[in-house]
Amino acid sequence: MNDIPAISVIVPVYKVECYIHICIESVLRQTFSDWEMILVDDGSPDTCPAICDRYAQADSRIRVVHKQNAGLGYARNSGLDAASGKYVCFLDSDDYLASNTFEYCYRIAEREAADQVRYMFSRITDRDAVNMQPLSVDDGYVIGIGRDGIEPVLDIISPLISKRHFFATTTASSCTALYRRDLIERHGIRFHSERELMSEDYIFSIDFGMVCRKIVYTPYEFYYYRHNPSSLSSIPRLDRFDRAVHFAAFLAGKMKNYGYEDSEIYAMGYAIGEMRSANLRAFFSKIPYRQKKAVFMRTLQNGYVSEIQRCYPLERLPFMQRVAFYLHTNRHFWLSYFVTKLRMIWKK
């Protein structure tokens, strides 16, 4: 094995003592052994720090960084500061990977001289059986070159605006990709704090995608994302849309700096998606109807909604999204609530 590992996997750790074993074991069971794992203990108050230390003592490829709590984004940055691999990937500590993730992604990255290999995820719950078996793959992937290569990611963040020179199934998450580390360091790419900027990993994905010469997109669900179905029924944050508007302004400036003429439209597309998300969370939460309506109306108090109405090409939205936007901006709470519930039932 070389002194420089092929892959550094960075795992931020905070209050996940029920899941951290599964996460770490999914790396230990990889069919590709030339890796290092950096466990970043973000000041976790449970037994996670001790668990991480025990794994590091048992395997020299595992290192632990103990730090004061500062959130997910900064924990990943601490991992990047400690990483030495040719490539790097991120794994959240309540999730896990299929056992041939590293083998496949490294082979494809080397074969194609790619700066990034993106893959998909599968949602799991606590009731699902853990499956770390290798995925069956046939090397079916598509390649994006230069600036056009990031369009599938941008289309996730803000649909309909990109010129779509080509299409690929993907996500915008920073956890579903293998990155060439020297590009990250050369361009000083780091995460923002999610406490200051929601969807902070979207910005990381954009910043890295903009400096890529070649991106490989695979359809394989190597990443197992732990999803809590009850999260939809939790009490929604009243300031979520206000935070989304803050992110939209940041995104507009980011896209403008990268030379995109439609930077404001990109930002508005993201905000429209967050309007739908805010309503969905409110409608399916366990709060009284009066509070659901308060969440619904609060969004409209933000002046950015009026700007969207004036400037965004709403005619390009899919029909049901146009209907949802119209019902919301015209304050039709009960009709919007009924249509949303009906759509969710229909999807099931």
Q: How would you characterize this protein structure?
A:
Residues 8-187 form the Glycosyltransferase 2-like domain. Keywords: Glycosyltransferase, Transferase. GO terms for molecular function: hexosyltransferase activity. With 348 residues, the chain is α/β, with parallel strands linked by helices. It has helices at residues 20-28, 48-58, 72-82, 101-112, 151-157, 181-186, 200-210, 240-257, 263-284, 289-300, 304-311, 319-329, 333-347; strands at 7-13, 35-42, 62-67, 87-90, 96-97, 116-118, 121-124, 142-145, 177-180, 214-217, 223-226.
Sum up the structure in keywords.
348 residues; alpha/beta; Spore Coat Polysaccharide Biosynthesis Protein SpsA, Chain A; 2 domains; 8-stranded mixed beta sheet; 3-stranded mixed beta sheet; 13 helices; 14% strand; globular; transferase
Poorly predicted runs are: none
- Topology-level CATH name of the largest domain: Spore Coat Polysaccharide Biosynthesis Protein SpsA, Chain A
The largest beta-sheet arranges its strands as 3-2-1-4-9-6-10-8
Structural class: alpha/beta
Count of individual helical segments: 13
Q: Approximately what portion of the residues adopt beta-strand conformation? A: 5-15%
Note the main sheet.
Answer: 8 strands, mixed
Order of helices and strands: EHEHEHEEHEEEHEHHEEHHHHHH
| CATH class categorisation of the largest domain | Alpha Beta
The total count of strands amounts to 11
Pfam families: Glycos_transf_2
Domain Glycosyltransferase 2-like: 8-187
Protein name: Glycosyltransferase family 2 protein
GO molecular function: hexosyltransferase activity
